[in-house]
Amino acid sequence: MNILKNIQLVNKMIFGAGSFHQLGDIVDDKRADSFMVFLVDDYFEGKELAERTPARDQDRILFVNVDEEPKTSVVDDLRDAILQITGKVPDGVISIGGGSVMDYAKALSVMLNNPGPSSQYQGLNLAQQPSVYHVGVPTLSGTGAEVSTTAVLTGPEKKLGIKGDFTPFHQIVLDPELILNVPRNQWFYTGMDSYIHNIESLTGNYSNALSDALAHQSLELCRQVFMYGSPDDMPSNEKLMVASLMGGLSLSYSEVGICHAFSYGLSYVLGTHHGVANCIAFNQLEAYYPEGVAEFKAMVNKQDIEIPQNITAGISEAQMEKMIDTTLALEHMWLHALGEEWRQTMTRDKARELYQQM
Ligand SMILES: [Fe+2]
Fold it and tell me: Which of 43, 149, 222, 234 has its CA 20 to 30 A from that of 186?
């Protein structure tokens, strides 16, 4: 008998334009005798959204830089700094930003109650103690980080999430006004993460009626957004926010596949951000996802987006080997995409050949 996934969902969710106004009341409800940490993308430092953060005097607003993919060392530093400076565990962590900031908040909220380095917790259900209350407020849509059971982290040895029942948010606030006017390239790269989640979730051994239904609807929304929409129209942003949520749920109940396996290698070795790394990888995967890649290319053309090419040209042999190692270590993705015999299809030589095209 197959062991079926029993996934922890987000506890509470609010959706709709202007819902950010309710964040203060939501957070106040969870205050005890400590303070709240607001983890905010440093892109917003000095901007209007940072001013609107409903922080009280005792709270801490920490601006976090996400030019690089989230790292275990940064999570550890944040945790240690908060505990050392204040001497107590906060009542909650509220993240305002894209997937990287949300992943930092998810990881931090686990690590505030669990000892040792966060790299020890990269894997499934390794944390012993529940996380502190944490809230996700996305300002970019596509990653599904708002709803996923994973906080993806790059550690000293691997890129792998802190995954499990304590990772998902207790509350998410989905306000489409917050994702209005994201720069077009970033809007596209991040939004395409959702499109690719759906294609990968649908195409593999772990797909099922639940993950398929979510992926199909999310795909339809992605089509409307990227074939007909733009970053500055509200209906598109509402749809993209829902697509991200449904795509994230779909992959949580199924799995991602070949594109993510390659994308993780690019991010781990070259530091390429997840969304753009996915686009670079997906662009070369016609053989595995013919219809998805054809539609992806149509969207790239429609939105006039440049997908970086030849980013692996000139890398060292050691870097190439590390990328291949990273990719082939993601067994759960390969089992989903190619089945038990995946090693016969995706050999080191084949992985190298694909990386050389990226
Ligand atoms: Fe992704």
Answer: 149
